[in-house]
């Protein structure tokens, strides 16, 4: 406890460029706003153009100097990821920050156009493919960072290597847990591979504790208002992500979360994970399987 990190400690960073996936709502919106306030050019990578435009207008309303643009991205679709990366790369030579934030939680069973279980596709596989496609820009950008959103709920599940897509039986909680564990293991393994290849791009994992956002949209309507009693504001949860992205003391391969009771709320600090998440043999297996599923190969 005791690290009351805030955005005020960060100097303006004009000339830098960031992508935030799922930036129209919740944590992603607050992260995009925070980066924009530091004069970083922010690309709101969202699946809904209208919601993205509204978020952009809100950010500019809060900070008139904001440089914010929208580009369509549906992380549950490999085709959309490829299109997004091609459009972004056609306009930009560099990329300083990639915030792999978009997510859904405990959604009903659904198979995406690529044949993937939807939570794994949206939360993890889309971001794996996006990172691979944008990596050439990032490795040529000094001081670049990739922040991938995990969750306390990574502990809800292990990786189902024989049944990634829950074809043998679907549990909403286990599918969410698996996707967030995959995000965490990917962030760690990415750092190992970046270091081994001699790149200075850093990969960091972050989680926002328990924050009030739209993530509970699949919860029963009667339960949702209860969240207001104990969830921290999205702006506070977003500090973990902003700290992972901007603080100079953060090393690649670290995991950031809130410092309060059970990491549910508070100010950002480096936190630990369980041994499974740190197991490199499992992480390598996951990487190989992810390359096979997405057809995006990098650092291998
Ligand atoms: N809130 C928490 O307590 C908490 C805890 C742990 C981890 N997290 C993580 O934080 C991240 C952000 O979630 P949040 O809490 O801010 O929830 P949120 O308010 O529901 O925001 C999720 C964002 O992701 C977008 N999204 C969903 N599916 C997408 C897709 N297929 N393609 C592109 N964008 C998509 C949503 O867009 P639409 O508006 O179009 O749906 C929205 O912008 C997630 O990765 C989540 O797992 C949150």
Automatic annotation (TrEMBL):
<keyword id="KW-0560">Oxidoreductase</keyword>
<protein>
    <submittedName>
        <fullName>Short chain dehydrogenase</fullName>
        <ecNumber>1.-.-.-</ecNumber>
    </submittedName>
</protein>
<dbReference type="GO" id="GO:0016491">
    <property type="term" value="F:oxidoreductase activity"/>
</dbReference>
<dbReference type="Pfam" id="PF00106">
    <property type="entry name" value="adh_short"/>
</dbReference>
<dbReference type="InterPro" id="IPR002347">
    <property type="entry name" value="SDR_fam"/>
</dbReference>
<dbReference type="InterPro" id="IPR036291">
    <property type="entry name" value="NAD(P)-bd_dom_sf"/>
</dbReference>
């Amino acid at each position: 406890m005791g690290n009351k990190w805030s955005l005020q400690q960060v100097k303006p960073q004009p000339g830098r460029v960031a992508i935030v996936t799922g930036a129209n709502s919740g944590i992603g919106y607050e992260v995009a706003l925070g980066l924009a306030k530091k004069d970083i050019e922010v690309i709101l990578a969202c699946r809904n153009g209208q919601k993205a435009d509204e978020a952009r207008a809100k950010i500019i309303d809060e900070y008139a100097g904001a440089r914010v643009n929208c580009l369509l991205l549906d992380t549950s679709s490999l085709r959309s990821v490829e299109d997004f990366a091609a459009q972004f790369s056609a306009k930009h030579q560099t990329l300083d920050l990639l915030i792999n934030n978009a997510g859904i939680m405990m959604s009903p069973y659904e198979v995406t156009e690529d044949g993937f279980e939807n939570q794994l596709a949206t939360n993890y596989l889309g971001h794996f493919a996006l990172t691979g496609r944008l990596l050439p820009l990032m490795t040529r950008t000094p001081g670049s960072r990739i922040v991938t959103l995990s969750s306390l709920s990574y502990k809800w599940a292990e990786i189902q290597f024989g049944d990634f897509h829950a074809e043998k039986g679907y549990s909403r909680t286990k599918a969410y847990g698996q996707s967030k564990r995959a995000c965490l293991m990917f962030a760690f393994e990415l750092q190992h591979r970046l270091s081994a290849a001699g790149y200075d791009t850093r990969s960091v994992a972050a989680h926002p504790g328990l924050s009030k956002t739209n993530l509970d949209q699949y919860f029963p309507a009667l339960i949702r208002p209860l969240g207001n009693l104990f969830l921290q504001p999205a702006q506070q949860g977003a500090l973990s992500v902003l700290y992972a992205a901007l603080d100079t003391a953060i090393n690649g391969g670290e995991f950031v979360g809130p410092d309060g009771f059970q990491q549910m709320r508070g100010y950002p600090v480096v936190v630990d994970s369980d041994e499974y998440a740190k197991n490199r043999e499992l992480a390598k297996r996951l990487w190989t399987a992810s390359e096979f599923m997405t057809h995006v190969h990098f650092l291998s």
